Amino acid sequence: MSLVKRVLPLVMSGRRRYLAAIVLTAAGVAAGVGFDRQNRSAASPEAKPAPAEVRVSAVRPQREILKRNIEQPGQINAFERTALYPKISGFIKIYHFDIGDHVRKGQLLAELWVPELVEDLHQKEATVVEVEVQIVQARAMLRVDEAKVIQAEAAVSRSAATRTKAEVTRTWWASEHKRVASTLKSAASSQGEAEQVDEKFKTSDAAVTEAAASVALAEATLVESKAHRDKAAADIRFAEARLRVAKADRDRAAAILGYARIEAPYDGVVSRRELDTGAYVQPPAGGAASAPPLFEVVQTHLMRIFVDVPEADAPLVRDGGPARVRVQALGDRELPGRVARSSWALEDRTRTLRVEIDLPNPEGLLRPGMYATARIPVSRPQTLTLPTSSVFLQDDQAWVVRLLGNKAARTPVRLGVRERHRVEVLGKQTRPAGQSIPAEWEDFTDGDVVVADNPSALLDGQEVAVRPEPPTARASD
Fold it and tell me: What is the pTM for the complete model shown?
């Protein structure tokens, strides 16, 4: 400035104006250089003045219900999709349905021609009839043998009665024979009477012997009749067992032949048919993938979409919760659904949770293979939250600035669920990690005070003053 004062009179007098202009220019350059040096010295690392106190807005963590939507892409799938393969070898006799046809559960889709199985079934059925006839004959023989047993028992009873009668008669004549023999000595009985009584005694004794023989014969006949009856009963049981075996063989042959009928497993649509009439088919030897199926049937009244939820959102998903599915092929139409089930365990490779959403499809608008986006609304109840404006990122770490008295304290934090304007705070690092001391983390409390806006502009330890909140307007009466 002194240089300018010395030159100014020369300029005003009009002399040496050219020289004055040069001097003024030099003075300006010198002044500019000096100002630049002054600014550089103020910004140099050696001189770091303490920042002035700034006024900030502060908030405390609040307990709120955080609501957000989990959006994940997926693909529409049929609730059930079944490939039908032949169980037996044979030739395709006839097709009753083709691709695109709606079918009902149990409807006949196709028939196979297997004549050897038909003949085998006829043979098994004939065996059943044969055994049934044998059972009828065995039962008839049993009735005859039972009648013989009854007759033999009656004969035994008659023979026993005859023997009893003969024994009584013999006993009476034996007493008469003894009496006559005793009176014959005293001449009380004649010789002729004694001979007559002796004859009667011998006759009665022979009758007893004959009756005993008849009883023995009748008993032997009874034993034989019972043996025949028991054999006939055993034959019936054996024939009945053979009948059960024959029926089981017949039913097995019928069941195997039943595989010649390819039926719809449920109500749905035929989505695939590979072979034509007359083609020879057989069960896939190396698994289902080794041969094309005869049919593929898909359900239509209910669809489902699988989405993979990231690990951070996995605990928030609940079975039975609502969901919305947007289908691009339907003009981004949104359809209501529900979370039917989840795998519960996370996939090891992707760290995601497989979630299934069921979608009713009464109009048949949804088709397997359509691309869709699922939106699952979730919430975390009564959790501590901060405004998103109070959190900033630095070196991939979330930070907030807490107020400790009138000092700003940069604090690393752990975050949870995010909403559009709020974020869940899980923990704060109260002591940074050192070489030998691990970092300490504490839970946030509703007593913490945090800078609400532009916290990244504050330095650690900077003095701050909390801006007073504007007074709330009274509600008009």
Answer: 0.57
CA 266 vs CA 67, 85, 259, 297, 331: distances in Å: 40, 15, 17, 8, 30
433 is written with which tokens? 């990690």
Residue among 390, 392, 384, 420 nearest 403 (CA): 390
Rg (CA), the chain: 57
CATH superfamily of 116-258: Helix Hairpins (1.10.287.620)
Nearest to 55 by CA among 421, 471, 452, 410: 452
Q: Are 170 and 208 in contact (CB under 8 A)?
A: yes
User: Domain spanning 296-380: which superfamily?
Assistant: Efflux pump adaptor protein, beta barrel domain (2.40.30.170)
Q: What's the topology of domain 56-62+384-466? A: 2.40.420
Sequential DSSP letters for 164-190: HHHHHHHHHHHHHHHHHHHHHHTTSS-
Domain 80-114+260-295 indexed as CATH 2.60.40.420: no
Q: What's the token pair of residue 435?
A: 């070489």
DSSP code at position 444: -
Domain boundaries, the chain: 2-43, 56-62+384-466, 80-114+260-295, 116-258, 296-380
pLDDT tens column, 61-112: 999 888 888 899 999 999 999 999 999 999 999 999 999 999 999 999 999 9
Q: Would you report the helix, strand and coil content of the chain in percent, each value rounded to 5?
A: 40, 30, 30
Residue 284 CB neighbour total at 10 angstroms: 14
CA distance 465 to 57: 9
pLDDT in tens, 310-349: 988 888 898 999 999 999 999 889 999 999 999 999 999 9
